[in-house]
Amino acid sequence: MRVANSIFAGLILLLMISLLYLTLQIPDPVNSNVIGAAYVPLLYIVVGIFLCVVVIITSILSRDTKVFSLDKKFYLYLLIIILYLGAINIVGYYISTGILIILLYWLLGIRKWWKLILIPAIYLMFIYVVFEQFISLPIP
After folding, report:
1. What is the predicted pLDDT for the residue at 1?
2. Residue range 95-107: average pLDDT?
């Protein structure tokens, strides 16, 4: 488990460093009293880098000897997420997200029909109201 944690944290650390490079390319605001567009991404990136370093250090210092393995459900979930990302472009966000939530709930063992229908419906209505009505940001 130590090696897997170190490898994963190292890959995420590389991603964070590349995002840091891209974020530093964002121009500073004209008014120095205003927080720029890069502030929040920089904050998240610094926290992410710190957490990756902590995971790497604790993995190196750990005496854990468990063997890391992925079960078949991981690959099923990964396939579902990949299909979901492709389906967004084909059928749109709302339909594909509704199907995704229902499918994942079903795989997680939730079988009550009212939960399978009500939770995705409430979530999608919330996204519609916040993004399309309040912010006027169209969702594909």
Report:
1. 61
2. 94
